[in-house]
Structures are given as C-alpha cells and as structure tokens.
User: Fold this.
Amino acid sequence: MRVKEDIMEPDELLKQATNKKRAGDLESAIRLLREAYNEISKSQVYYTVETFLRLPAYLQEAGKGDEAWRELNNLIAAGYPNQSKNPLITPIDHSRIYDAMRLFLQREGKSESAVKFGLLSYVCGGLALYRQGHSTDPDEFFLQERRERLRTDFSRDKIELTVNKLLKKAGKEQLREKVSSIVEKYVNKLPNIKLGELAQEIDEAILK
Assistant:
C-alpha cells in the first residue's frame, strides 16, 4: 500500500528555503521555493510580492541569470498566485518588481539598462500615491496625506535626485536634466500614464 506523502504548508517550505540558502544550498532553496509557490497557488492565502521575488534573486545568485530574468518578467506580465486585483495595490507590486529588475541589472554590471527600471519603479510609486489620494476612502486625512506625498516625493527636485542617483551608477550624470524632464512629463500625466512609452524614451536618451 502506497503511503501518501505529507504535504508541507507554504510557510514551512518558505522557512526551509531560507535555511537552505543560509547553508549555501541554493539548488535546494530554489526547489523549496517552487514547492511553496505551488502550494500557495492551491490556497486562498495572500502572500506579498516579496515572497515571489525571492526566486529570481536565488536564481541569479545560483548563476541562472536568464531564468531569473524570465521570472521577473513573468511577475510583471502574469502576476503571482492570489495577487490582489485592487488598483490601489497593483502599482505598488509593479514598483517593487521593477526595483528588483533594477537591482538584478546592477548586479550584472548593466547599470545603464538598470536606470529605466529604477525609474519605472519610481513612477509606479507615484501612480499608487495618485490612486490612493483620489480613492473613495472615507478618511480625509489619509487622502490629503497621499496627495501631499505625491507633491513632495515627485517635485522637480526629488525627480532630479532620483534620476541623478541612478545615472551616477551608470556614469551618465550629464543626462540628468534630459532624463529628469522625461520623467517629469510622465508624472504630470498621472494617472493616465503609459509605462511602455516612458521606458522607450528613457532608453532612447540613455542607450543611443
């Protein structure tokens, strides 16, 4: 008689993946993460996007850069198990994924390409603030706080600081004003923003 194997809960699998990584066994850590994700997909339990950003980070560390990049792109395109469909949350998820893409590229020594993803992350953060500040939340203090943060975090000075930090790593600080103007143009279009067009303009400014 075949004995049914015990199925571990996602939290236990995630914990074991952490332990395996700390022990230097990345292959086992990756396998355990995939098992955890599979179990999460069968449940109704919500896990944050950070849970799913672990896999591409582990894959990159294991020398599997192409596979890691595919995972990151899949998170943007298809999402992750039980992902919230709340339009106030989605841009936050995308902001964190784009930032993980930035970090991936910087670790690969591709700091010029990383600029675009850093700025996509930044602008997605602005989209989240805009939507939250114009939501139907009955808390007027919350709405005002979101709107004020949008004004301060996406002022011209803050845009230039963000842009310059990314360009400095790429050795392209001379493009600060040009790239800042591109970002400011799209921030001023919130919430009607096309990230694909923003990405293309940034690439044209930096990589040409």
